[in-house]
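In this section we walk through a basic example: taking a raw amino acid sequence and producing a predicted 3D structure, encoded as discrete structure tokens. The instruction is simple. Fold the sequence below.
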Amino acid sequence: MDFPGKPRIKNKCIIKPNIDKNKTRQKRYLQRQIKLKFLLIGGFFMLKKFKNKKQAIIMIISTIILLITGTVAIAIIYKNNQANETIEVLSKYGSRGSEVTQIQTKLKRWGYYSGNIDGIYGTQTVKAVKYFQRKNGLTADGIAGPATLKAMGITTSSSTSSSTSSYNSNLNLLARVIYGESRGEPYTGQVAVGAVVMNRIKSSSFPNTLSGVVYQSGAFDAVKDGQVNLTPNSTAIKAAQDAMNGWDPSYGAIYYFNPSTATNKWIWSRPMTVTIGKHRFCK
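The resulting token sequence is shown next.
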């Protein structure tokens, strides 16, 4: 187990302009449709004016076919645009609003961000998001996409907000922490590790969400070395369920460490509650 600290951020971010090709195609099809409509109107006049009515009828039929084809194409492009807008729920450089404020608030609380919480996704926010992504095994592109928002514990309009989904997500995350931090320890010790996470959520000294506690900068070695991304076994899942249901073998502890490997003098000064396996739990 490690302890939260404030990271230094050095990387610069280069933002590339984003061109919406679907909207460009849609505009081009609309312009073509207007031309075809004029041709269709002209065809009707030709039918009345010219003697060669057969050619005029052929031209009108051809125009109608092109008009229908273009309309279908526009409908498909519009549908794709709507689908993209629904799927690509994210914040990136230049974004503004409440979601950006949530991102900045969480990253500042966890030690990744040192700028103002202004709801503007600027260069500092991009750097903080990239730092968070690197530390948590995500693609470090500086864009708060669905995976990054999920890791931060931020729900979007496209995500399921039911309590069952939230519980399952938290259970999986806690099980991964337990597996990464304490697999091989006695079962009671694994539950105690989960209980420490739950106790931190209740403490005013820590973030008030499970994902916030887990991903607080420097809080857990399993997050730092990527073991939190391993698939938990059934024992870790059961231990997470017990911890979430209120079993606390740590007796209210908010820290734990391995006495045989710990070098941090401060952690040795914390009041001990219990020792289980290789871990000493303390407040």
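Looking at the output, two observations stand out. DSSP finds eleven helices and three strands in the chain. The first strand starts at residue 255 and ends at 257. In the next section we compare this with other chains.
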